[in-house]
């Protein structure tokens, strides 16, 4: 298993995966745009082929702040529930800590039970409940992890 930075050849994989996020809005366009955004870093998880990715970067502003966002995390359906999502999040934590960020943040749709369970298991805590967060009108929880609290994780 290999984790590497995204390259232009990964664009087709990212674009195809992005269709799964369509219920939240036009993410089949937004996610490929994030892939091209120099402020957003994409890491690809590869076995014999790409099987997942995580995107990290500032969601709301482009100037430096103590918080970095998981803008997207994805594992191909046939490789889910095998710990790969957790692996991607752990790698994101390591990268963000190294880059000097204090908080890792994510927004997860109210009804996205799998993703909520993934982040909670990784010791993210719910900070806000935001109605109408997505372009589709669906709401999201804002979750955050304090990267300085390495072992205990939870703040609340
Ligand atoms: C969310 C996603 C990345 C999880 O990836 P994954 O590789 O399956 O995650 P893991 O195997 O590391 O699972 C971690 C934990 O998440 C939870 N989880 C994952 N899939 C679940 C499911 N189908 N049902 C319930 N809980 C689930 C469990 O708590 C699991 O821990 P456990 O296996 O010890 O029970 C994957 O389902 C996905 O790509 N979904 C579509 C895209 C998406 O919704 N992304 C998140 C947008 S914010």
From TrEMBL:
SUPFAM superfamilies: Acyl-CoA N-acyltransferases (Nat). It comes from the Bacteria. The keyword Acyltransferase applies. Residues 1-148 form the N-acetyltransferase domain. Pfam families: Acetyltransf_1. The keyword Ribonucleoprotein does not apply. GO terms for molecular function: acyltransferase activity, transferring groups other than amino-acyl groups. Keywords: Acyltransferase, Transferase. InterPro entries: Acyl_CoA_acyltransferase, GNAT_dom, YpeA/RimI_acetyltransf. This is N-acetyltransferase domain-containing protein. It comes from Thermodesulfatator autotrophicus. The lineage of its organism: Bacteria, Pseudomonadati, Thermodesulfobacteriota, Thermodesulfobacteria, Thermodesulfobacteriales.
């Amino acid at each position: 298993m290999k984790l590497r930075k995204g390259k232009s050849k990964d664009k087709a994989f990212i674009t195809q995966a992005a269709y799964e996020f369509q219920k939240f809005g036009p993410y089949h366009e937004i996610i490929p745009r994030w892939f091209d955004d120099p402020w957003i870093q994409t890491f690809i998880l590869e076995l014999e082929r790409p099987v997942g990715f995580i995107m990290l970067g500032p969601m709301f502003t482009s100037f430096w702040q103590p918080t970095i966002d998981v803008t997207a995390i994805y594992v191909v359906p046939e490789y889910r529930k095998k710990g790969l999502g957790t692996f991607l999040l752990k790698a994101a934590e390591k990268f963000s800590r190294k880059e000097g960020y204090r908080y890792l943040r994510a927004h997860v749709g109210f009804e996205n039970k799998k993703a909520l369970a993934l982040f909670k298991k990784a010791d993210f805590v719910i900070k806000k409940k935001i109605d109408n967060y997505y372009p589709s009108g669906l709401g999201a929880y804002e979750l955050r992890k304090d990267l300085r609290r390495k072992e205990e994780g939870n703040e609340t």
